[in-house]
Amino acid sequence: MTPRHAPLTARAFTAWAAVALTATLSCGTPPCEEGEPCATEPDAAAQGASDAAADGPGASPDGAPLDASRDGATGDAGGLLPDGAPVDAGAADDAPNDAGASADGALDGSSASDAGSDSGDDAGGADAGGDSGADAASDAGSGGPGGCVSGASGTHAARFKWIGSGPSSTASVSYELNNLPDTSRWRAGAYSRSGVGYVPRFTDTFLGVGGLEMGGTVFIDVELSTAMLSSLRRVTLSVFGRSFNTTAPGSFSWMTFDGAGAAPSGLVSNAAPYRWYSVDATSAFRPGNAGVLLRVSPGGPSGTLIVSRVELCFDASR
Question: Out of 77, 253, 256, 283, which residue is the most buried by the measure of CB atoms under 10 Å away?
Answer without folding.
Answer: 256
